[in-house]
Specification:
The complex is a heterodimer of chains A (about 550) and B (about 375). Chain A is mainly alpha-helical and about 550 residues long. Chain B has 2 domains: about 240 residues, P-loop containing nucleotide triphosphate hydrolases (Rossmann fold); about 120 residues, Beta Barrel (OB fold (Dihydrolipoamide Acetyltransferase, E2P)), CATH 2.40.50.140. In chain B, the strands form 4 sheets. A 6-stranded mixed beta sheet of chain B has the order 7-8-9-3-10-11, sandwiched between helices. A 5-stranded antiparallel beta sheet of chain B has the order 2-1-4-5-6, with helices on one face. Chain B has a 5-stranded antiparallel beta sheet with strand order 14-13-12-15-21, with no helix packed on it. In chain B, helix 2 runs parallel beside helix 4. Classes of the chains: A mainly alpha (about 550), B alpha+beta (about 375). The interface between A and B is medium-sized, with 19 and 29 residues.
Amino acid sequence: MLAFFGVVMGLPLLFLVTGSFNLSAPGKDAVYGLANWARAFGDGATMNALWMSFALSIIRLIPAMAIAVVFAWLIARTDMPGGNAVEVFCWVAYFIPDFPLTLAWILLLDPNYGFLNTLAKDLPFVDGPLFNPYSFWGIVWVHTSASGIWFKVILLTPIFRRLGASLEEAARVAGANTTTTLRRITLPLLSPMILAVAVLSFIRGLQSFNTELLLGTPAGIFVYSTRIYDYIHREPASYGEATALGSVFIFILGVLLFLYWRFLSGNRRFTVVGGQGYSTARVKLGKWRHAAFGGCLLYLSIMTLLPLTFLVIGSFMRRYGFFGISSPFTLAHWQNLLTDPIFLVSLKNSLIIAVITSVGGILLYSTVAYLLVSRRLAAAPLLEGLCWLPHILPGILLGLGILWLFLATPLRFLFYGTVWGIALALILSDSPVTTQAFRAGFLQLGTDLEEAARVTGASWWYTYRRILLPLLAPIAGAVGLMNFGGALTSISTPVLLYSHQSRPLAILLLEYSVTGELERGAALGLLITAIICVMMLLGRRLGLQLSGLH
Amino acid sequence: MSQPVLEFRQVVKRFGSVNAVDQVSFSVESGEIFTLLGPSGCGKTTTLRLVAGLEEPDGGEILINNRAVAAPQRGLFLPPEKRQLGMVFQSYAIWPHLTVFENVAFPLRVRRESTDVLRARVQKALDSVGLAGLAERGATQLSGGQQQRVALARALVYEPAILLLDEPLSNLDAKLREQMRFELRALQTRLKLTVLYVTHDQTEAMTLSDRIAVVNAGRFEQVGTPEEVYEKPASAFVGEFLGRTVSLEGILKVASTGCFFELTEGDGSIAVGADSSDSLGNGASVRLITRPEDIEIMPMAELAPNQVAARIERIDYLGDRFEYHVRVAGFSMVVSAAKKDRFTVGTQVRLSFDSKRLTLHPR
């Protein structure tokens, strides 16, 4: 089991690194040398892309963290009305895939036909387009509305909530007012956790691909992931440079994660921010409470509702941006989309991939998690390390590694360009979250429930079927849905692995976008968003049911 | 004498380099409650889990009803489901997705009992623990005490060879704990159950057990009836673990008139029974151990036999009695006294020891 897992997890990485030293094309006889590295780094564009990756990830972290902290604090620690509603909205916003959202912002901000630019034209002192999404700041802006920020809110809210009420109450009794308590007690106490979330977000931000591809490429702004995509899509494809760049990036990510891990484990301040019980006493905002709620709603509307609305409008417009023409609205794009044979094939592919991914992930990682939790395994730490590997491996690099694996081995006949190959890559990328979910589930169940069944006379298999499986069903359902949704929206992982027979919906959306079929793209983006939102809310409900059970 | 239901022969269980169970031998007779008593981490739960088959021993032999269930030298290990045992876990381990009825019926379903038999036996088991009306309740809708009864019914439903109880009362509040203790004893007597009971609570052990094994660092320090273990602790550890002790250091004097304990410094000698000084010779350095309630405190006068002089240093008023912190020849000790006598701090008093209620241990 471990050996199998090691091979599956480790091989793509291994092939990626060795591939970077291989001078000949994949599948041919290997010739090893440093020329790929030399060429990749002799090219100023490569260093530029690396630099741009870091710059973008750092810059957009600052507003995102500030906003996320404010949201989390308002939801968890204050008497703001509708805090629960805001939290649910954040969840919904988190589920909106970033590619359709980027598309929506293009519809709003494009220099030629963007709605906001058209509006701004009538303002005094404005010549030419006011906004330009195809820029550094455009990318930062779109990321500030994308799921990343809501991900931070979702991570931070429970942290704020868990802070023991007694710690804050002690400060109040000692004479500190609301703001002093917040400034001197709450934030310093939570600062290590907030910092941890920031570092994690930074590292995950480095893996971003979709927005950079849509907004950066037209403006000549490349990050390392779009640069790799560019290398592979050249004629002829430069696999060597792509793998060299990928290897450097993995090295950098590895160092960062190692530092992050050292920082987390070496710092005792992370251990207890407990105190007694949950906080019931909330900070009183007074007359500001309604303003705070309004502010949250306004931010959510501008960042989520507004672009989505224009995605809807865009999908019904004959020609997007031309409101003046006679009968500007049409159903044609939807009709064309839904009757397009390519769409139908892609839909089928996507569903097959998503089903394989979610079912395969559940089977594989529930077993892995069981092995991790039961003490029977001596190699558990190694297995756990392997499970976290895809966490540092951005989708595009995982795709690249797997591409190499397929190209250089007989696996190509089975997997290359097929839905199975894409599903395999997606299953691997789901490893950290899925394993942790099952692991937490097993840990929560404890060993007693299982042992109690054994002592009463049930065999292991009977116990697994009658006790463990029914108890874990909600977790399996929730992660299954999550992974299903992830498989539907992922672009960076399958983008190097698909062929015309196995093209999934997300890639079709990418193609519509780069070929300028914005209206049809808007329709498809909406469709995907709708599917995801329904699935994710279903998943959240399952998750809540589970937590209500205990 | 009847055949032992459970027998341990030189059983060893190691976790890494630690011997969690170290060469332990004992046997449990049919129909008795045998309690493993000890501090946490002493190996008592591991012993129980060895019986259940949830841990594999590294050495020795375990027999249930004269049949070996684990003998590592012979490569023999019977998995838990083949051992016909009932077990109540500390956490109760009630399966949250099943009703009370299904929880209790599970062992019978595993054994493929017919529906009629199953129904009747589950009903009987639920009746015997006083849960007759709650069969269709979800398991998570029960209080702690009710969950515990379900766990008990589930363990009893197929009439196991031994009932294993792993600190079953520790998660209940004090009142309920006392009540369950009596019910458990009544149930055991009525059904003539053989019980192996694990606890760290000496009150539970004293009131429930036919025999107690005091466990320390993987070894059995003493096995005996509650009275034996309390009155004649085999070691200082046993004495201190079961209630409070008072200890004095001195020297053993063996004379023609009997054996005496003499304080190293200060006056007074205490007659000790021959049995507690068996293995010790004349002049041996010894520690005398007795219980605070077995010492009588009296106003100062001429020292009679078995009395020593002491001075009162502090007085605690506990409502139903006084506790005097006294100093005897360099040793501090606590002595309880009824409320009828009253002494003040600084007073010289006599302490009178009971020769029949003390033990000597080598120093």
